[in-house]
Structure formats: C-alpha cells, structure tokens
Amino acid sequence: MRSLVDHDIDFAALETLPNEEVITTLTAVTGIGRWTAEMYLLFSLKRTDILAVDDLAIKVAAMELLGLAERPTPKQLKDLTQHWSPHRSAASLLLWSYYGSLRDKTAVPL
Question: Which of 19, 29, 51, 63 is the most buried (most CB within 10 A)?
Fold first, then answer.
C-alpha cells in the first residue's frame, strides 16, 4: 500500500495510455506484477486485446485447444495467438471458461 501511495498514480490518466505504458506504470509499484496490470487493463479499463500469457489457466486451455504437446511459453502463446488480435480479451474469457470445463469447475474470474 505504501508503494502504491508513494507512486501517486493518476488512474484517470491510465484510461488514455497505451497498454504497455499502463503496465509499466502499474508494475513500478512494489507488489504489482505484469499479470495484475493485465487484469487491470482487462477488467477495469475494459481493453479488448489483452491475453495474459503468463496465466496458468490460459496456458493449459490454449495447449488443449491448439493441440500442443506441452504448455506454451509466454512467447509461444503470444505468437500463436497474434491472429486473434484485437479480440484477445474475449479469447481470455473463453479460455478461462474452457479451462473450467476441463477441470469440471468454473474458472472465469468475474
């Protein structure tokens, strides 16, 4: 919390920044990593092209969906899903749901 206060982030200004600038701004805060910043982009800023390539559920679901022998690395997943742009946020939600069905439980973080 102290780091968040110390960084005095203008959250209203984040709405107009490109995705990578938002990620850079948020990850400067101690305790906020890339995944958390991507979730902020996806759920708070409603960005349409966010795929959290470090998310385990997304990796597992993509592996199954794409017929891969093993979980993809973040770089591989980014490359494999580039053609899903600019709709990767919808793909994230679908992959979380698919992961839930693979595990016979709900996995959509809503």
Answer: 51
The C-alpha atoms of residue 2 and residue 5 are separated, in whole angstroms, by 5
At 64, which amino acid appears? E
pLDDT in tens, 52-98: 999 999 999 999 999 999 999 999 999 999 999 999 999 999 999 99
The residue assigned the tokens 């891969």 is: 68
Catalytic annotation present for 10: no
Q: Which residue has the higher pLDDT, 6 or 37?
A: 37
pLDDT of residue 105: 64
**Residue in 37, 45, 39 with CA at minimum distance from that of residue 93:** 39
Pick the catalytic residue from 6, 8, 55, 104.
55
CA gap 44, 98 in Å, rounded: 23
Amino acid at 14: L
